[in-house]
Design brief:
- By secondary structure, the chain is α+β, with helices and mostly antiparallel strands.
- About 20% of the residues lie in helices and about 15% in strands.
- The chain has helices spanning about 30-35, 55-65, 90-95, and strands at about 20-25, 50-55, 75, 115-120, 130.
- It has a 3-stranded antiparallel β-sheet. Strands 4-5 form a two-stranded antiparallel sheet.
- The N and C termini lie close together (about 10 Å).
Length: about 130
């Protein structure tokens, strides 16, 4: 299950030193990039196509390393499932540039692996990703 707290949410808190706030769709290129920086996500079973709550700064590093806007080193972002705390380090326009298909700012279309949204019990909390 994804999320720092392994509860299906890309939410953060004081215990989450990596700020796992960006809801992204992993690519082999990003997995290689992350491993080159000392965090081999394949060791925990992640593969191309998995949805995962990514560390804000690692996603930003990948974006800055990208050679173009369509460079697969940058995971596509599920804006609706990304925690607002990501905006402390990444501009909304940058997140929108890499929005997954079907998300606001992406140009429309359907996602390769659609996310089902389940509102929190009180209707005010984060949206939970289900797979």
């Amino acid at each position: 299950m994804t999320g720092f707290y392994r509860d299906g949410y890309c939410r953060t808190g004081p215990e989450d030193k990596g700020n796992h706030a960006v809801a992204g769709l992993l690519t082999n290129e990003f997995l290689d990039f992350s491993a080159s920086r000392g965090n081999n996500l394949r060791d925990i079973g992640l593969t191309d196509g998995c949805k995962w709550c990514l560390c804000t700064n690692r996603w930003k590093e990948a974006m800055e390393a990208a050679k173009s806007a369509d460079d697969p080193v940058v995971p596509k972002v599920f804006l609706h499932a990304t925690d607002e705390s990501a905006l402390k380090a990444i501009g909304l326009e940058d997140l929108k540039k890499f929005a997954a298909e079907g998300e606001a700012g992406s140009g429309g279309g359907a996602t390769r692996n659609p996310v089902t949204q389940t509102p929190s019990a009180d209707g005010r909390g984060p949206i939970r990703e289900t797979h």
